[in-house]
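This is your field. Have a critical look at both lines of this record:
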Amino acid sequence: MRILIADDDQQILRALRILLTARGYEVLTARTGAEALSQAVEHHPDLVMLDLGMPELDGIEVIEGLRGWSTVPILVVSGRTGSADKVDALDAGADDYVTKPFAADELLARIRALTRRQGGPADEPAVTFGDITVDLAAHQVTRRTPEGTATVRLTPTEWSILEVLVRNPRRLVTRQSLLTEVWGPQFVADTGYLRLYLAQLRKKLEPEPSRPRYLLTEPGMGYRFSPDET
């Protein structure tokens, strides 16, 4: 099981890495909010543990960014003990909240509870639209053809964009949200990236790329994945 720990305190990161690695977990670390989002997009952890007070993006912004495309369990581990901080984190989409300093046994029990609750393979479905199937667990796209099933090769960036859209069927995904999730918050104004990559995805996935049925543009706002033909 893969756990992403986001905290700007190097000693906390080291202690948690030792604790969790000794229990058989694979551990990823991030020291800023932006790095946490980037790691989550790239590595798809099974659980995210994060502090609220991080540079670049704070913990609440990271939670909101994750919840734009993912249902991964989020455990806040923070020195902030006020009830308002806990309410804000839970309202933003966190699943649980532990205050520092924490007991190792309690933290491990919270992790076990959250990962049991998550459910397993059903959370990584295969999504089909037209002749295309997107297998979120295998990170693979295939197309049905008269000769059989063929693999559609995507670049890592194309996959990241498609995954965010497919995980949010029929929902508007803003340009800023996509840019943040795929490239990072420093690229929120670079909408040319999205136009380029969406054009490439449509060439690979749409029956008629110039008249998209599934990967739709919402002018001035963003994009929408419509699994039903329009």
